[in-house]
Amino acid sequence: MKVERLAIPDVILVTPQRFSDSRGFFSETYNHQKMVDAGIDLTFVQDNQSLSVQKGVLRGLHSQVAPFVQGKLVRCTKGAIWDVAVDARTGSPTYGKWVAAELSEENWSQLWVPPGFLHGFVTLQENTEVQYKCTSLYDKASERAVIWNCPHLAIDWPISESEVVLSDKDKIAPHFTEAKGWFHYS
């Protein structure tokens, strides 16, 4: 398993090995001990999967506040996404900064988005499937969002605004200034 810390060191890109032959491939996509060795020592309690039929579907920027703060281990099993993590931990040296990585069925990489981060992705291909493991259960009352194109974050999305497909809820999400105090750096 290849492990790479990104520009925000708490965000980790993990790429499991794939063993291919004439039948297809085999991959161990999750191993608790290898994740602990990589610095991801949390228990996952929920798995989620999404299918986006159009290129340009943007989901995010999402998070959950206490007591249901979530860390996410995200992977793309069909198609490709550009996956973004934004540090929303008040007091963090990287507060308000973002990192991104392309995840695809080809590169087989996974992104660890720690608790206290906003998460979002945009599909780069049609019929893209994303799966992710969560460290806390979904709780509607704890759900929070920030608008994807917030000028305070200046995320350099690899798609034009006219191509973006959003949910009604994501269209009206507030700016990042509303996130102050959602999480604290420790």
Question: Which key features would you list for this structure?
Answer:
mainly beta; single chain; 186 residues; six-stranded antiparallel beta sheet; five-stranded antiparallel beta sheet; globular
Structure, described:
- With 186 residues, the chain is mostly beta strands.
- It is built from two helices and 15 strands.
- Strands 1-2-11-7-13-5 form a six-stranded antiparallel sheet, with no helix packed on it. The protein has a five-stranded antiparallel sheet with strand order 10-8-12-6-14, with no helix packed on it.
- The two termini are 28 Å apart.
Mass-distribution shape: globular
First-residue to last-residue Cα separation: 28 Å
Q: Please tally the helical runs, counting DSSP H or I stretches of 4 or more residues.
A: 2
- Please state roughly what percent of the residues sit in beta strands, choosing from under 5%, 5-15%, 15-25%, 25-35%, 35-45% or over 45%: 35-45%
What are the segments in which pLDDT stays under 50 over at least 5 consecutive residues? none
The beta-strand count equals 15
Q: Strand order, biggest sheet?
A: 1-2-11-7-13-5
Described by strand count, sense and barrel closure, the largest sheet is: 6 strands, antiparallel
Helix content: under 10%
What is the N-to-C order of secondary-structure elements (H for helix, E for strand)? EEEEHEEEEEEEEEEHE
- Taking all Cα atoms into account, the compactness measure Rg is 16 Å
| pLDDT averaged over residues | 96
> What would you call the structural class?
mainly beta
